[in-house]
Design goal:
mainly alpha
């Protein structure tokens, strides 16, 4: 995949995070508990931070293609999908959907896998840039 596509993906993820933040602040507050809103907002926060990370890595890769940072981008992208995505699903599962036990237990192990992807991508960036 071209590096410009990764930059576009990160911009899209940033736009989605802002929209999800507004959704959580205005539309979901009547349907979700405080705990669920906290899960939702945590998903938005980590999506924003790591989408900015992807954008930064994409720019670094554009400046110096020899660094070959594609795996940093891929792993961070999957981290966003798994970590933030699982928090979004957990938040709305108990609120809007009613609680579906299977979804709850399926998402719980996915969240730390996404967090591990974040850590791995940042460490991989450290190794690549050294």
């Amino acid at each position: 995949m071209k590096i410009t596509n990764w930059i576009k993906i990160s911009a899209l993820l940033l736009a989605i995070a802002v929209a999800f933040g507004a959704l959580g602040a205005h539309a979901l507050e009547n349907f979700l508990s405080i705990e669920q809103i906290e899960w939702w907002n945590k998903g938005v926060f980590y999506q924003l931070i790591h989408s900015l990370g992807m954008l930064t890595i994409g720019i670094l890769f554009t400046i110096n293609p020899k660094l070959n940072l594609k795996w940093c981008l891929r792993i961070m992208f999957f981290g966003i999908l798994l970590f933030s995505g699982s928090l979004y699903v957990l938040a709305i599962n108990k609120g809007i959907l009613g609680e579906i036990t299977f979804i709850k237990y399926a998402m719980i192990p996915i969240t730390p896998i996404g967090g591990s992807c974040f850590i791995i991508s940042w460490i991989l960036l450290l190794v690549k840039v050294r």
